[in-house]
C-alpha cells in the first residue's frame, strides 16, 4: 500500500494550498503566498507530514513549465518587442548589482575568524559564487502573482518577463564562467555556442510550427481539444530540447512556445484550458514543492548575522539594479519599483545554483543554510510586495483579465 501514498500527498497539498490561499486572501495578500506557506508548514520545516518525493518533484517541474507556457500565451508580443532593449538593460543591471554586492558580503563573512568554509576552491572564487547565487531570479512566483492580480499584460509585467528570461541566460553564462574556472571539464565557449544555437533553433522551429498550427487550427470551424493537446506537446518538446540539448532552462523553451501560440486566433481558448489545468493541479504542486524542499539548518550568531545581511542585500540589490535599469530606459518611478520588486524572488533557481556550486567546491556547507533562508524569505515576500506596488495603477492601461468566467464566455463565443 506504500506505493499509493502519493495520492494522500496530493490530497493534502491541494487542500492545504487552497485553504491557506483563502486565508492569505482574507489578509489582502496573493493566494500564491498561502501555497508557499502550505509547503513550509506541512513539510520538513514544521509538521513534516509530507516529504519531497520524486512524484512531487516531477509534477512540480511540469507545473512550472505550464505556468511559463501560459505566461507566454498571455504576453502581448508587441509590448514585449517594445521592451526588448529595456529588458536587456534591466536584466544586465539586475545581474551585475547583486553580483558585486554578493561578492563583498562574501569577502566580509567568508573568513576563518567569522565563518569558516570547507569549500575546496579559492576564497576569491567562493566569494564571486556568492554573488552569482544572488543574481538568480525565479520568475514563476511573479508570473503567478501578476496573473492573479490581472497585471501580466501591463508594461511593467512585460518588462519583468523579458528581463527574467534574459536574466536566466546571463545567469547561465556567469555560472558557467565561474564553474569552468573551478572545473576544467566545463568549456565556456561551448556553452555560449549552445545558447546561441538554441535561439536560432527556436526561431526556425517556432516559425515552422506557427505556420502549420495556424493553418490547421483556423481551418476548423471551432476550437477543439486536439488543438490544445498539440499545443501542449509543442510546449513539452521545446522545454525538453532547451534543457537537454542546449543547456537552457526548460521554462525558457516553454515561454517561447507560449509566445508562438499567442499569435494564433485560438490562443484565448488554449489559455483557458491550461488555466484550469494549472489552477486545479499543477500550480499548487509547484508552489508547495518549493516549501517542501526547504530544510532549515542550525544557526550560530555569526551565521545568523550573515543570513540577515544576505537577505537584505538580496532584496535591495534586485530593486536597485533592475530599478536603475528601468529608469535608464525611460520607465516612470512607480514602474521601476514594480520591475525591481518583480525580480526579487530567488525560488528554486538559487537552490539549483547553490547545489551546483557546492558540488564543485565553490560553496561551503556553513553557507548553504543562509542561502535556503534567502530563498524562503524572497519567495514569500515577493508576492506581498507586488500586491503593494501594483495597488495604485495610474498609467498601465493594458491589463490581463484574471476572471475564469470571462475566459469561458470567450470559449462559448468561439464554439458558437
UniProtKB/TrEMBL annotation:
This is Sodium/proton-potassium antiporter GerN, CPA2 family. Belongs to the monovalent cation:proton antiporter 2 (CPA2) transporter (TC 2.A.37) family. The chain crosses the membrane at residues 32-50, 86-108, 128-146, 158-182, 188-212, 224-242, 248-264, 276-296, 302-324, 336-355, 367-390. GO terms for cellular component: membrane. GO terms for biological process: proton transmembrane transport; sodium ion transport. It is found in: Membrane. Residues 16-391 form the Cation/H+ exchanger transmembrane domain. Keywords: Antiport, Ion transport, Membrane, Sodium, Sodium transport, Transmembrane, Transmembrane helix, Transport. It is a multi-pass membrane protein. Gene3D superfamilies: 1.20.1530.20. One of its GO terms (molecular function) is antiporter activity.
Amino acid at each position: 500500500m506504500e506505493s499509493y501514498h502519493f495520492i494522500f500527498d496530493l490530497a493534502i497539498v491541494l487542500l492545504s494550498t487552497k485553504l491557506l490561499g483563502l486565508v492569505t486572501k482574507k489578509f489582502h495578500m496573493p493566494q500564491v503566498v498561502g501555497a508557499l506557506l502550505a509547503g513550509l508548514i506541512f513539510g520538513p520545516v514544521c509538521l513534516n507530514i509530507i516529504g519531497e518525493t520524486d512524484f512531487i518533484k516531477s509534477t512540480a517541474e511540469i507545473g512550472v513549465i505550464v505556468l511559463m507556457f501560459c505566461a507566454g500565451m498571455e504576453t502581448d508580443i508587441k509590448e514585449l518587442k517594445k521592451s526588448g532593449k529595456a529588458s536587456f538593460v534591466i536584466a544586465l543591471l539586475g545581474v551585475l548589482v547583486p553580483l558585486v554586492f554578493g561578492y563583498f558580503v562574501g569577502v566580509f563573512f567568508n573568513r576563518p575568524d567569522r565563518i569558516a568554509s570547507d569549500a575546496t576552491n579559492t576564497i576569491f572564487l567562493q566569494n564571486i559564487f556568492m554573488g552569482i547565487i544572488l543574481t538568480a531570479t525565479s520568475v514563476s512566483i511573479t508570473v503567478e502573482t501578476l496573473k492573479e492580480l490581472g497585471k501580466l499584460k501591463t508594461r511593467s509585467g512585460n518588462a519583468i518577463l523579458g528581463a527574467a528570461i534574459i536574466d536566466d541566460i546571463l545567469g547561465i553564462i556567469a555560472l558557467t564562467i565561474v564553474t569552468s574556472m573551478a572545473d576544467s571539464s566545463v568549456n565556456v565557449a561551448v556553452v555560449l555556442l549552445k545558447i546561441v544555437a538554441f535561439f536560432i533553433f527556436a526561431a526556425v522551429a517556432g516559425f515552422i510550427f506557427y505556420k502549420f498550427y495556424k493553418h490547421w487550427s483556423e481551418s476548423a470551424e471551432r476550437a477543439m481539444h486536439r488543438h490544445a493537446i498539440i499545443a501542449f506537446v509543442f510546449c513539452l518538446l521545446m522545454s525538453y530540447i532547451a534543457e537537454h540539448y542546449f543547456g537552457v532552462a526548460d521554462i525558457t523553451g516553454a515561454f517561447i512556445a507560449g509566445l508562438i501560440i499567442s499569435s494564433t486566433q485560438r490562443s484565448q481558448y488554449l489559455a483557458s484550458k491550461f488555466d484550469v489545468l494549472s489552477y486545479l493541479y499543477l500550480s499548487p504542486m509547484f508552489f508547495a514543492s518549493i516549501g517542501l524542499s526547504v530544510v532549515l539548518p542550525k544557526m550560530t550568531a555569526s551565521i545568523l548575522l550573515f543570513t540577515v545581511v544576505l537577505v537584505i542585500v538580496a532584496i535591495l540589490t534586485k530593486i536597485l539594479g533592475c530599478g536603475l535599469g528601468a529608469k535608464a530606459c525611460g520607465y516612470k518611478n512607480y514602474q521601476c519599483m514594480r520591475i525591481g520588486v518583480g525580480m526579487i524572488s530567488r525560488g528554486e533557481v538559487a537552490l539549483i545554483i547553490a547545489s551546483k556550486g557546492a558540488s564543485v567546491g565553490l560553496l561551503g556547507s556553513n553557507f548553504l543554510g543562509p542561502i535556503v533562508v534567502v530563498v524562503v524569505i524572497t519567495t514569500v515576500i515577493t508576492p506581498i510586495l507586488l500586491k503593494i506596488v501594483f495597488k495604485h495603477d495610474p498609467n498601465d492601461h493594458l491589463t490581463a483579465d484574471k476572471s475564469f468566467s470571462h475566459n469561458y464566455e470567450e470559449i462559448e463565443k468561439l464554439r458558437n
